[in-house]
Write a structure and sequence with these properties.
2 copies of one chain form a homodimer. By secondary structure, the first copy, chain A, is α/β, with parallel strands linked by helices. Chain A contains 9 helices and 12 strands. Chain A has helices at 11-18, 22-28, 36-45, 71-77, 112-124, 142-148, 163-166, 205-210, 227-237; strands at residues 2-4, 30-34, 48-53, 65-68, 86-91, 102-106, 129-132, 157-159, 170-174, 181-182, 192-196, 213-216. The interface between A and B is medium-sized, with 31 and 31 residues.
């Protein structure tokens, strides 16, 4: 169905804009996303509620309303300065993982760009799920959604304690500790959990206590890699 | 030397603020950076011209002036909402690489965060230089500098044509092409150039024509990895 909206006071616009705040994402169990490629993946996941677009998009199911808006309204909804032309509301799906044999665990990751990029990489390397500790940033933050490039619609992202995953799984913790083994010397079998730590502080003490294997990437000159780069190298190795 | 500045109209503040624009970075051959850890690396590189800080920093050489400023002034200079407490002006150094045996070539990389992260990773894996094609973003953009975590002060970042690097070097091009070999099957010796393409369009036709080896990272589910993640995986492999 196609409708037109011209007023910023329209209730649909107000509702969608409210989803920029975590408390409304929580209250309504909805979140915002944007871009044509992302829309394609969100439609594939069946979680699109309504679409705000500059022009009609062909082949959208009848029950998903397309609101045609002007550029100022689209910019109001978008999180980028030059929006691609489409912003849409998604339903949080609380997708349950089928199995947890190969998962990445984010220990207090605070940067939305890093989280989104890690979700994208985990999906690309066929991980079963991305598991978040408490104190991570909100995975439905627009920047996480954008950086995930739609992966967040399709891979389960759940919150769970690392301790609850330990039984039967090898806990592999990425750390700069001298006790850690160099990545290329580490070979593990499924099921396993790969643990990545906070950008500034690394993995927490409680995660280190649960570790079966400590692993590090050999680097020179500088203290550390960006966590999403480190995650990429580790997930590529532990495929 | 320590001085105090309280006015936003102060010439030092005006000059430093102007460096947020590429044309003034070009005109003065200077750029802005911030944060204590970055300052440490910039001092190590000997490129710090002057410092704006909330409070005096100990052990700074006498000839580098420390301007003590208040929080509103610091925020004016900073590119982050919550600055760490120090912003400083650096001299572009045009550092010449000692050799170009192991280099990464960025083919029209446009996102400053990606470029900074790749510079950080190249430095961590002991690359000789980061080489930029034309049409890349400005490597002295604040976001590049921030994402590089100080690596940009210490690894040569230069602009040069790929064709000028081809003689005597293996040109390894990262591409999603079906003709590309899977990364783990590719082993090359120095000297080499690793070529990474634009976020949206991949490597350019002219770079593909110069390629000796096409390489790809096997992924599922999704079109591509983030370019700085792909760069990390490739540089970790080609160390």
């Amino acid at each position: 169905m196609i409708k037109e909206i011209t007023s910023p006071q329209n209730n649909k616009i107000k509702h969608a804009t409210s989803l920029k705040l975590g408390k409304y994402r929580q209250q309504y169990q909805e979140f915002l996303a944007e871009g044509y490629k992302s829309l394609e993946l969100a439609l594939q996941a069946g979680i699109v509620k309504e679409i705000f677009t500059l022009k009609e998009i062909p082949n959208i199911k009848q029950d998903i309303v397309q609101y045609i808006v002007n550029l100022p309204l689209l910019k109001k909804l978008s999180s980028t300065q030059n929006p691609e032309g489409v912003v849409f509301v998604c339903l949080k799906q609380n997708k349950k993982p089928k199995k947890l044999d190969k998962v990445v665990y984010l220990d207090k990751i605070s940067d939305p760009g890093n989280m989104g990029t890690i979700i994208r990489t985990a999906f690309a390397f066929n991980y079963d799920a991305v598991i978040l500790s408490d104190e991570c940033c909100d995975p439905y933050n627009e920047k996480v959604v954008a950086a995930s490039k739609g992966a967040i619609f399709l891979i389960p992202v759940i919150q769970q304690d690392l301790s609850s995953l330990k039984e039967k799984r090898t806990i592999v913790v990425s750390t700069l500790s001298e006790k850690a083994q160099e990545l290329n010397d580490v070979h593990i079998n499924k099921p396993f959990v790969l643990v990545l730590g906070n950008e500034a502080h690394g993995v927490s003490e409680s995660s280190l206590l649960l570790a079966d294997v400590l692993v590090k990437i050999d680097i020179s000159n500088i203290d550390s890699l960006n966590v999403s780069v480190a995650a990429g190298i580790l997930m590529h190795h532990f495929r």
